[in-house]
Specification:
There is one protein chain. The protein has about 600 residues and is mostly loops. The chain contains ten helices and 23 strands. A 13-stranded parallel sheet has the order 1-2-3-4-5-6-7-8-9-10-11-12-13. α5 (about 375-380) crosses α6.
């Protein structure tokens, strides 16, 4: 029986025996046949990363041609009911050497996902517009200079990735994509966008690394937009975004802005570093703002009304021209305040280096008409004041005023009296860095009522870390650069947000770490980790930063890409071969998407 498409004599579509498409000379036909057979059963075909320079013709006819296994049908055959095949719904052709996609793609009428990223495509076929069910189209990392207008006919398309191409413009009819919610246009050569783009119902629009000089005036009408990213463009102004009532994250770093943009009251994260903003507006509403990044601008003053942003957690004002900071800033509930690189008078570099808590304390203490009696009372109430020597008074005053116990490099003997004094002053930070410790200081538990930050880094701690489980108010634990391999009962530290275990000998992340549901930062580079426990990490629903670089990890599970809460993931310096370094260098968002695309379905 001979069928159209060349089942007999020629492999799947009429090409002679010379196999191209990167499958190797010996078994190319068998490999293709096996993959097509699997694709008919599952409705999914993955030909990614096979060095294809063209798509085998049988791929386009997978739902038309009678499969090879049906050539000889006998009454006793039980070959899997070949006629009960699934229409191909997902086709993955990424990371090959494809220069074109055949017009025959129209034959895949049931296709919902088409991924051709990381190829050498210069255009898309006109017939792609006939794929009425297509919901996800990924064409990143190609050589497109224009977007085929037929793409605008894809009425069911929800996700369109065109980043890392050579696009100079978009079709005017892009507004026809009324189901589109995510549009990625990073790393192209766009200088402007069509006004019609504002008619889309996008939730995420990414425009990083283009040459945009303006955004459409109607962008403020995009009421569904939750995320707008436009790093590294040439924007001098931005239209009012006050009408973007769903906007949560706005990123405009590395542009030419001279004024703060008008934003929606819904904005939580506003990133404006590396612009030319010289002042904050007098009337500016952002009642939900949590992150404000104004680093590397031209701010010369900070208005006192900054304290009105009561939800603000992170404020970065580094590398500006601030000569002073209102003392009232010290009353804010900031988790991060960065002021380095400013010509501030009255704030010594040593204060800035102590971190946010010490800096806020420093500012609070200088608020005019503040009552200094509380400090004196704290000093006089210290139980360990057995004499009134000048040194004891000075030590007590330092503890009470800064609430920091600094024993780094043995600058202070770590005696029980010192710890009890620190407890009396309700210290929140204890620094035991470079003290040559081979165990946690005895009686450290006396600080449990107030201690939130503990540093034991650069010591000689070995084996299992003990003696910290009573410090239940800790939010930051730094044990870098020791020779530790485990931590005893760390689950007791339920308030822990930041955990630094880099430069030790951990062969795995301690299992109890995965019970720390408040954890936001986990730095574990330069250990002996051999695998990634995705199941454990998935319990850390607040985790935003994960550094596993410089370990012995040989495989990266694709399901790691499902941890969508991660904003920063570092994996460099491990012996795994996939993902390639080129993928790692693209950043966290690209890496996570890469991993998700490789999850078997």
């Amino acid at each position: 029986m001979s069928r159209p498409g060349g089942i007999r004599g020629k492999p799947f579509g009429g090409r002679a025996a010379a196999p191209t498409a990167g499958f190797g000379q010996a078994n190319s036909k068998n490999q293709i046949a096996t993959l097509l057979k699997q694709g008919r059963k599952s409705g999914q075909l993955n030909l990614a990363n096979r060095e294809l320079d063209e798509v085998p013709a049988g791929v386009w006819r997978i739902n038309i041609d009678v499969p090879e296994e049906a050539r000889d049908v006998t009454l006793g055959s039980t070959e899997g009911n070949w006629w009960e095949q699934a229409d191909l719904a997902k086709l993955f052709l990424s990371s090959n050497k494809l220069r074109e996609i055949s017009e025959d793609v129209r034959l895949l009428e049931a296709l919902t996902v088409l991924d051709v990223h990381d190829n050498q495509l210069q255009s898309l076929p006109h017939s792609i517009g006939d794929l009425a069910r297509l919901g996800r189209l990924v064409v990143s990392d190609n050589q497109l200079t224009r977007l085929e207008p037929a793409v605008c006919r894809l009425s069911q398309l929800q996700f369109l990735a065109l980043d890392s191409n050579r696009l100079t413009e978009l079709p005017v009819d892009i507004n026809l994509l009324q189901s589109l919610t995510v549009l990625k246009l990073d790393k192209n050569k766009l200088s402007r966008l069509p006004d019609s783009i504002c008619q889309l119902r996008l939730r995420s629009l990414s425009l990083n690394n283009n040459g945009l000089t303006e955004l459409p005036a109607g962008m403020g009408l995009m009421t569904d937009l939750t995320e707008l990213l436009a790093h590294n463009n040439r924007l001098a102004t931005v239209p009012s975004l006050e009408g973007c009532r769903s906007l949560s994250r706005l990123e405009l770093p590395i542009n030419r802005l001279q004024e703060m943009p008008v934003v929606s009251p819904s904005v939580k994260d506003l990133l404006l570093r590396d612009n030319a903003i010289s002042s904050l507006p007098d009337s500016w509403q952002a009642p939900k703002l949590m992150t404000l990044d104004l680093a590397s601008n031209r701010l010369s003053s900070l208005p006192e009304r900054i304290v009105e942003f009561t939800t603000l957690e992170r404020l970065d004002l580094s590398n500006n021209s601030l000569t002073s900071v209102p003392f009232i800033v010290g009353t804010m509930s900031l988790k991060t305040l960065l002021l380095t690189g400013n010509p501030t008078r009255g704030i010594r570099p040593a204060i800035l280096q102590k971190g946010t808590h010490a800096l806020l304390q420093f500012l609070r203490e200088r608020i005019p008409e503040s009552d200094s009696a509380s400090t004196q009372a704290a000093v006089s109430s210290l139980d360990v004041m057995t004499s009134d020597t000048a040194q004891q008074l000075q030590d007590a005053h330092d503890l009470a005023s800064t609430r920091v116990l600094n024993c780094s490099s043995k600058s202070r003997a770590i005696t029980e009296d010192v710890l009890v004094s620190a407890a009396g002053a309700s210290v929140t930070t204890a620094n035991f860095e470079r003290c040559q410790l081979n165990q946690v200081p005895e009686r450290l538990e006396v600080l449990s009522a107030s201690l939130t930050h503990l540093s034991l880094c650069h010591n000689q701690l070995t084996g299992t870390l003990t003696g910290i489980s009573a410090l239940t108010k800790l939010t930051i634990l730094d044990i870098r650069s020791n020779t530790l391999s485990d931590i005893e009962n760390i689950a007791a530290l339920s308030s822990l947000r930041d955990l630094f275990i880099s430069g030790n000998r951990f062969s795995r992340i301690p299992e109890q770490v995965y019970l720390l549901t408040s954890l936001r930062i986990l730095l574990a580079e330069s250990n002996q980790l051999s695998e990634i426990d995705v199941a454990g990490l998935s319990n850390l629903t607040n985790l935003e930063t994960l550094d596993l670089g410089g370990n012995s990890i040989t495989q990266v599970p694709p399901t790691l890409g499902n941890l969508r809460q991660l904003k920063s993931l570092q994996l460099m310096g491990n012996p795994f071969r996939v993902p390639r370094i080129a993928i790692l260098q693209k950043g966290t968002a690209a890496l996570m998407e890469y991993l998700r695309d490789r999850i078997p379905t």
